[in-house]
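Support request, please re-run this one:
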Amino acid sequence: MKHSITVLLALLLSTTTYAQFQVSASGGYAIGSAGMKLGETQTANGIENSYGSYGEGLNAQLRGTYFFNDSFGLDLSLGYLHGDDQTVSDVNLTGYEVDAVARARAFGAAASIVYKFNTNVYARLGALVKLGGKTEAVVYQKATFSQAEADAIGVPYGSYSETNYVEDYHGQFPLGFVAALGYEYPLNENFSVFAEAEYYGISLKRKDSEITAFNTDVVLPDGTVAVRGLYTLDNLPEGTNRHTTFVDELPSDNTDSSKELAVKVPYSSFGINFGVIYKFKKAAPSHDR
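Re-run finished. Output below.
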């Protein structure tokens, strides 16, 4: 037992002797990988699927890395993703138009093992989690009234409704993985710059959503707004739910439109990051006996 404790203390002392701590900040851009169907584009000629990943877009990261020796280290990072617009619905039909996009606004964290192949080349591999954020859907819809609808509202035929709304989707706690291969170039004893290729593999299961903004105007054929705020967030159209919950099962006789079957949406991506590293003074090896 004493021998085991002595060996453990010796290992801890040796790693502490060579220990080095560094912090880094980086920014980059990622493209979607293994894109899944996110929406559809529809015209009079047909319907076409739209594929992508909500992980596509700009990102920024702050990392702290502790090296136990000259090769191995532990990396903890915090990141923010400002996702690109992804097409959910693009409809262009006579008398009916929809332009709906969704984009990620997410905060995440990762814990990784770092291995240095040499003083310049390194690799990271670890686990990735989402800490917070949302997938924000922004929708525009234009619908021309039928003659009966126009008469009921009291506007001439050819008038239409313009609806704009925002719906925020939230997901369950996800777990994914991150892998990166990078090149570091020292500038001096403390500062380095680096570039790296990074892969995120993660999907998000939807938990709930909430409409956070809603407005419908009635517009005359000449473009004049006849009625502002026909429908608002406090006066939603019949059948429109402000809150929706996503579940794994629904009964065959379900009549609750505020519940829908859950789906998984992709956040996987492949990106390039550029940044700067600051290294704190490295402990010198001890030769005391």
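The domain at 20-279 is CATH 2.40.160.20 (Porin). The chain has one domain: 20-279.
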